[in-house]
Amino acid sequence: MMKSRPIQFHVVTRITGFIILTFSIFLFFAGHNNPGGGFIGGLMTASALVLLYLSFDVQSIKKAIPFDYTQMIAVGLAISIITGIVGMFFGFPYLTQFFDYFQLPILGETELTTALPFDLGIYLVVVGFTMLTILTIAEDEA
Amino acid sequence: MSNLVVMPILIPMLIGVLLLLVKDKKQVQRIATLLTVLSMIILSGYLTYIVYIDGIQTIELGNWPAPFGIVLVADLLSSSLVFLSGILALVTLVFAWLTFSPERERNFFHPFFLFLLVGVNGSFMTGDLFNLFVFFEVMLISSFILISMGSKKYQLRESLKYVIINTISSMFFILGVAYMYGLTGTLNMADMAVRTSEMENTALLSVAAVVFLFVFGTKSAIFPLYYWLPHSYYAPPAAIAALFGGLLTKVGVYTIMRMYTLVFNHDPQILQILLIVGGLTMFIGVLGAVALYDFKRILAVHIVSQVGYMIMGIGIFTPLAIAGTYYFLVHNIIVKSALFLYAGIAERITGTTQLKQMSGLLKTHPYVGWLFFITALSLAGIPPLSGFFGKFALIISGFEAQHYFVVAVSILTGVLTLFSMMKIFMTSFFGEVKLPDPASAAVKVGGLAAATLPLVFLTVLLGVAAEPFMQFSMEIGEQLMNPSDYYIPSVLED
């Protein structure tokens, strides 16, 4: 049987995939004080990845994006936990957060917070967990 | 404010996560887990000492002040239980190394062992109701994985029941949290206690109390809700069954102790319910143990029966009764796990857990036999072992509070416990050597028996040194019965 190639789906995925990924990163940085953040950004990134897996097949995407999602969850958790520990060296309770404003080139005055690496950890955990769950179920038949 | 309080939760969590990254390196996993458990024992021991000297220690996570942020509270009860969970973890960890097949160890055993400890320690320490739910979930999800690891048919079937029952009770947990938040507008347990004591209409509060009794009762396996336990705890291998049997149900008992002394102390009728439920739990549990002829199953049913004593102690609700409950809780964590480990050793030797198929183990493996004998007598409450003093305090306090009927039930239960323990000893350890396979008489289990020694030592120590330890328990009883002098100010006025 000839394998059908959903051309339209491929083309649309290539475009929307990028839009979703970009927007998810925007959401990730928007978070903390506005709606958004690691959890929502991570879910949206995962949705873009799932779209890729749906449109192309699991094997070829695995070649293109060779992530081990278990490791991704572990790295994400480690980043979040260690961010919380940093404050302890200065005598603050665990998970205390700090922020300040800095003049950065190109970006101008920017708020940098320790909540950002914490959120990055959450982002990685959410992406890793969602993808691992979906792929484990998807690979069940094989 | 002291970061020491968060350490027993933080260290296993961090190491567990890092171990996910090196899942194939067996030696690294073993050494890191061992060091983590040892550091947990040392830190929580030190924490208990500080709490004993300086009073209750708290930490406001993220530096958010108390009623708003999440607080971890180390009072004598929680810090000493964390210490005990560390010791139990050490023993079961060594036992697991000696008995587990390599595949089982490769399947993320160590990380989830540590996450289970995170959940247990967190449940003991947290001072926030919703956070308690979160730590319960951490504990339960890890326990789901540990209980189903190995994927035997029987094991998977019982694990599925375990997962479903616990998920349903978690849903009710959320419901209860919502009730309490709606009633008091706070999730901080100390703040909640202040507001409920000022409340005039306590009818809704009693509803919430009963919802929580259902939730914690399911976790700790009290009378109408215990049906899942004998099967679920029968399924996993001995090391895991010992950890679960020793710790997980006791976390449920701990939360009942905490919530009903701190928040739900308004209504004597609820204490009446606890007394009735406690009496039924211990009696029906022990009847199951008398009827059964399977080593591991008898022990699993005994968990139910022993939980009944603790519920009864909480129901009597005097400082002496709470002290007795605590003493009994500690005794039970130690002894119950040790007995599960002996069931594992007997299974290792004979290949079966059926009592009628083994006999004369005392002749072939005398050390195992006598160690089991000591522990079994301790469970049955024979002086001078630890089980006696826990029951003694409970019975005395029951007489003082004039709850004669439930005390009579508890004494009868004690006799039946002795009977069922002696049944195990007489059929499988005493008598002529009769094993399913003659070669099994030569099976060496010296290492396994040595791994259980700390637990046997502790139960003897708790019995011999009952005087200082009873004083420690009395102090805990005082602290729990007078939360407005101890727990509440230490959380809210820092």
Listing every helix as H and every strand as E from the N terminus to the C terminus, the arrangement of chain A reads HHHHEEH
Percent helix of chain B, as a range, is over 70%
For the largest interface in this structure, which chains are involved and how many residues does each contribute? A-B, 17 and 16 residues
Largest sheet of chain B: 2 strands, antiparallel
Short recap of the structure:
The complex is a heterodimer of chains A (142) and B (494). With 142 residues, chain A is mostly helical.
Describe the fold and architecture.
The complex is a heterodimer of chains A (about 140) and B (about 500). Chain A is mainly alpha-helical. Chain A has one domain. Chain A has 5 helices and 2 strands, in the order ααααββα. In chain A, strands 1-2 form a two-stranded antiparallel ribbon. In chain A, helix 1 packs antiparallel against helix 2, helix 2 packs parallel to helix 5 and helix 4 runs antiparallel to helix 5. The longest helix of chain A is centred in the N-terminal third of the chain and has 24 residues. The model of chain A has no long low-confidence stretch (mean pLDDT about 85). Chain B has about 500 residues and is an all-alpha fold. Chain B has one domain. Chain B is about 75% helix and about 0% strand. Chain B has 21 helices and 2 strands. Chain B has a two-stranded antiparallel ribbon. In chain B, helix 3 packs antiparallel against helix 5, helix 6 runs antiparallel to helix 7 and helix 16 packs antiparallel against helix 18. Chain B is globular and about 70 Å long. At the A-B interface, helix 4 of A face helix 1 of B.
